[in-house]
């Protein structure tokens, strides 16, 4: 049956399955964390925990990933829930940009991938922190546009966690009792998982098609100067849509072709912006905001990779 299919289609299918199988556990974990935040995190608790100073709040968002590790595959539902729970957007997005990089698992995998060298792990972490601080300052002091889609805003005002209609009708009220809390957590996580999962599937299909049909050789040829090499590696990071726990091994294999700076750009940009993430963000956030965010991240990462 499958033998009659072209090799390119079979190759695309294998890549698609590997992307989905690799990402699904992290999406599920992200949705479970999102469910826990929905049930246990209240705006009052957020107000008590977060510093009033905006810069300190951004810095705290940057550091949360060390204690609250999350792959980029499941980060978007968590950030959406943070914003819904009145966590300032500058804190929530600082967390989103750094958590897939500063978490101990990714730091260790990067260390191993580059032959037990701490250099690239260090440069990767520093780059993510710089990008997150710049984006956080932009969101805190300069951004005037709305972040959440109008639909999400209206759902927050109505007190419902998402677009699904529950029979309980009391999602806005605190859930009492351990049994009810666990039930509400699982219900929200399940809704979030099926909501987010379709964007993972579509993103996986697009990423696998691009990996199969985009001429990688041409991209390698174009990376003849450092600046072009940086742009090519950012494009490659977007195209491959790798999990942040595995991308360092691909990055290390490209080191001799592109050099240190472009590879660092690849390691920083990939976990922040890939096809899966963009489609998941499209579910919750406005297109204009996503375009501004991606543009700013790309500029800051390019400058950092050029300087390194």
Account of the 3D structure:
The protein has 308 residues and is an all-alpha fold. The protein is 77% helix and 0% strand. The chain contains 16 helices and no strands. Helix 1 runs antiparallel to helix 9 and helix 11 runs parallel beside helix 14 (260-272). The chain is globular.
Q: Could you write a compact summary of the structure shown?
A:
By secondary structure, the chain is mostly helical. Helices cover 77% and strands 0% of the residues.
Series of secondary-structure elements, N-terminal to C-terminal: HHHHHHHHHHHHHHHH
Number of helices: 16
Q: Runs with pLDDT <50, length 5+?
A: 159-173
Number of strands: 0
State the secondary-structure class.
Answer: mainly alpha
Shape label: globular
Regarding quaternary structure, what we see is: single chain
Radius of gyration: 20 Å
Mean pLDDT: 82
Main sheet makeup:
none
Q: What portion of residues is helical? A: over 70%
Portion in strands: under 5%
Head-to-tail CA distance between termini: 51 Å
Protein traits:
mainly alpha
Layout of helices and strands, plus pairs?
Blueprint lengths: L6 H34 L2 H7 L4 H14 L7 H10 L4 H14 L1 H10 L4 H25 L7 H9 L19 H36 L2 H7 L3 H15 L6 H7 L1 H4 L1 H13 L2 H10 L2 H21 L1
Helix pairs in contact: 1-4, 1-9, 3-5, 3-7, 4-5, 4-15, 5-7, 6-7, 7-14, 7-16, 9-15, 11-14, 11-16, 12-14, 14-16
